[in-house]
Amino acid sequence: MAAPPCPALQREQQRAADIIRLLTLYRPLLDAYIIVSVPPSPSAPPLRVPPQPLTPASPQDFFTEGLWAQLPPPWQAALATAAPLQLARLLGGLGGPGAAWPLSLLAFAAATRALAFPRGCPGGSPRPPCQSTRLHPLLRRHVKPKKQHEIRRLGKVGAPPLPAPPCDPSPPRTSPKTFLYLQLLQRLTQATGCDRVVDVGAGQGHLSRFLAFGLGLSVTAVEGDGRLAGMAERFDQELLRELGKTGVPGNKGLPRCHQTAPCHSPPSPLTPRGPRHVAGRLDPSAPWGEFLLPPDPPGPGPTTRNPLGGPGGSEGGQRVLVTGLHACGDLSPALLRHFTRSPAVAAVASVACCYMKLSTPPEHPSSSPGYPLSAWVAKLPGHELSYRAREAACHALEEYVGRLRGESGCLRTHCYRAVLETLIRAANPSKKRPGVQTVKKAHTLSFPQYARLGLPRVGLDPAAISLDSEAVEAMLEQQHKVVAFFSLTLLLAPLVETLILLDRLLYLREQGGCQDGDGEGVTALPVLTLPLPTGFQCALVPLFDPRFSPRNLVLVAARTPLGAVLSGLDEDSSEDEDTGVAEPSGQKQS
């Protein structure tokens, strides 16, 4: 007798189907991000008609393709008079006084919020502190505040607590964003009994150093760029030299906190146990024991085919925890595939990024694509996501809401690029949507200044083009319409990210033995934690503050229950607020 289908699986399958239906209905708006070579139809109907009659365009095509006229007339009337603060409230789902939005626009915005995964409620400082007083000074070196926040939060979920000195009963801490990730990894290692971690896509080794020196774990750092792997080793040696000067026990002589910041409990001492660095790229099709390809570009040292030793994928037969903080493109799906195939991998924690770099079936027919992963999503009509639709999922909705609320001058750059596209095509019709390198601080320039910097980058002479004509001025006066149109596209961005991450959760369910259901009569519910009856346990955790860490959803999967790992993370996050020196508002996070 067949086992009954999982109710949670049915809910998430229905949710994926609902998202695809909504994206299909508004695909012309979503595909306004897409740069293609097919010319748009001059008789394209309004946006309210589903997708096929419209041809994808780009925000830079706002004037050349008449994108504003393709919106439903009631939307045009409301958006044309909307102030930036009103657009911010529309994006944020806030009520109160504001524009009189058409019901169809309100329904569209409400549907996008209802189907997207919750991203947490941002609170506290609008940006991470300049330096964390809760991270050991040696571990703060070379690490940006955003990265500190991520490592700190993630690590708390994975490693056994180190013995603390008498004056400091707390576990080792770092700055907001980085420490959140460490919190997660610390709990995962405790739940799985692992003290071995493989950090894939380790970059310059910031996370690996904290796991090894700060938490005493055995860490193998794998990085596909040989130059970054070499830099990580130099940073390790730099830290070891400093430890040798001060002495490991207590690490005396080091500054305990930033001089201008209030001092919390001092950071715990470091151990002299550093990570092992391996230069190599992950091969998603290879067995776990032979999962590396040569680095690109190559590094100075030899490439290790199996960084973990034994035939089971771990040295001495121990199980390992695999993590990837901002694992780019196909790297995140590769981590999940290795988790499902290798019993030696006890758990995986992955933060994805660069969705536009995911491979799709038409691109690589002979290999497993990065999207879709699950059999369920792959069989749904309309599940395909184009390059720029996936790129849209990487945009920071919360950051843009902040710009709208502050009526930031950065908003004018969208209009500048759209006007520049009009001038480029008028001067040379063969140049459609050329790549124009970013003009630094474009919002501080006048349009003629901006154009004089941008036009030479596409081979055009600014002196031969009128930059202050009446036509140019008329387009610049429509900046508010360009901003409104861009705001609508951002409403769909979280939906695309949700579909990609939901596809990965469904893949884990399928690989873990959860039976497929027919999905009839099921409603879409915002369920993040997905316990499997057999096999794997998995969850999506909004771990970071989305305002300065837009990719804030961490996918966690394990072969043991996750209840103890996830319990109380919200309470822990309030303890991690750091009152260190705030970064100047004019400095951009990267």
Automatic annotation (TrEMBL):
What Gene3D superfamilies does UniProt report for this protein, alphabetically?
Vaccinia Virus protein VP39 (3.40.50.150)
Residue ranges, annotated region (Disordered): 250-316, 567-590
Question: Which InterPro entries does this UniProt record tie to the protein?
Answer: Methyltranfer_dom, METTL25, rRNA_Ade_Mease_Trfase_CS, SAM-dependent_MTases_sf
Q: Kindly give the CDD domains that the UniProt entry links to this protein.
A: AdoMet_MTases
Q: Which SUPFAM superfamilies match?
A: S-adenosyl-L-methionine-dependent methyltransferases
Q: Which gene encodes it?
A: Rrnad1
What are the Acidic residues biased-composition ranges?
569-580
Q: Which residues form the Methyltransferase domain?
A: 183-360
Could you tell me the superkingdom of the organism this chain comes from? Eukaryota
- What this protein is called in its record is rRNAD protein
Sorted alphabetically, which PROSITE patterns does this protein's record hold? RRNA_A_DIMETH
Q: Pfam families, per this entry?
A: Methyltransf_32
Instruction: List the top taxonomic levels of the source.
Output: Eukaryota, Metazoa, Chordata, Craniata, Vertebrata
